[in-house]
Write a structure and sequence with these properties.
alpha/beta, Rossmann fold, 2 domains, five-stranded parallel sheet, 5 strands, globular, disordered N terminus
């Protein structure tokens, strides 16, 4: 293979920036989000939507890596749109845009399939960090809050699902290795990749690889939903504070 051909193949196969869609029914909010995220390395705003139905349509057309999803929107609210997006394209990540940090609401967002949330008045650094966290497989929620929400989520699961989750679709999940199951249990405690690496005495890169394999095998978009799936399948136990 010539040097020119090799260079062309490397460019062709190089991962591009993460594709982001902004969803909010207020033009000014979308403009503000776009201004804060535009120019950030590794991130590209590829589309916008002004209501839930439009968000689903845009998602199907553009297949983004992540959607920032407002809650209160006409035609279809953010939670309903999130559920529809996750039903059709489970590997698309969703970060909920909210005004208040309300646990009841955040629990519903988690059930709908969201990876986490961003406060609408959050500073630019926090918004960028949250987006990057989801895209890189890091936690998008505070550790204590994660455990609290997962405890409530597990308590809401039907007893039958906890004891016997039943057969899983063969084309939607793959069996986790014992090590991956161990890592998933640590994720249920809200641990970051660095904390997982210290707990297991492995490199951060190895911990990150385990997390990415888990996400891929469980056919989800992020670590939060990987833990939710693990609880639903009964392969990990309820985390404790």
């Amino acid at each position: 293979m010539s040097d020119q051909t090799l260079a062309e193949n490397l460019v062709e196969n190089a991962p591009g920036p993460a594709k982001i869609v902004l969803t909010d029914d207020h033009d000014l909010v979308r403009a503000g989000l776009k201004a804060m995220l535009s120019g950030v390395e590794g991130i590209q705003i590829v589309g916008e939507a002004s209501n839930g139905r439009e968000a689903v349509e845009v998602c199907g057309r553009l297949q983004p890596d992540l959607m920032l999803m407002d809650v209160r929107m006409p035609e279809m609210d953010g939670l309903a749109a999130t559920r529809e997006v996750k039903r059709r394209w489970p590997r698309v990540g969703v970060l909920i845009l909210t005004v208040h940090e309300n646990q009841d609401y955040l629990l519903e967002a988690l059930k709908a399939g969201a990876a986490g949330y961003v406060l609408k008045d959050a500073p630019r650094t926090q918004l960028v960090d949250s987006v990057r966290s989801v895209l890189s497989g890091e936690p998008a929620l505070d550790q204590k809050l994660t455990v609290q929400l997962l405890q409530r989520l597990a308590a809401d699961l039907p007893a039958s699902a906890k004891e016997d989750p039943g057969p899983q679709p063969a084309d939607s999940t793959e069996t986790l290795t014992p090590r991956e199951t161990e890592v998933l249990q640590l994720l249920a405690r809200g641990l970051s990749n660095q904390e997982v690496s210290r707990e297991l005495v492995v490199s951060v890169g190895t911990a990150k690889n385990h997390v990415q394999h888990i996400i891929s095998k469980l056919s989800v978009s992020d670590r939060t939903q990987a833990v939710v799936r693990g609880l639903e399948m009964g392969i990990i136990s309820l985390p404790t504070l």
